[in-house]
Amino acid sequence: MDESTVWWLLAGGAVALELVTGTFFLLMLAVGLAAGALAAHAGADPTLQLVVAALVGGGAVVGWQRWRLRRRPTARASENRDVNLDIGETVQVQQWQSDGTARVRYRGAEWTVALQNPLPLPGPGAFRVVSVHGNRLIVRAV
Hints:
Oligomer: single chain
Distance between the termini: 71 Å
Strand order of the largest sheet: 1-4-5-3-2
């Protein structure tokens, strides 16, 4: 069996394993294995093939990890406008209860509203939804 065929089979196995596990890092290692196959096609000796596969695969893993760590962290689903369209909407609070909650009519239903920062207790008025926890809207003053 040709050396490049072995590299391609290993790369295909890594891709198949990545599809089963969902580990993106295996896909990066498969890129390294494909680079080893290309080195074998170019006529490189087995040691150079291994070095190329290790450098490309390892470099892809390190690059992916660094990119993930530098990427802006996404907001939790309860605070993410892309997940919950209630975030950023305003509600009118008529009266606050002593525990820092209120009942408001919003989207045709009664909702419990709680303050993001409960002290001091504000007066009635408009408040912006900053997150949703179950059936409770967490708000701050507009």
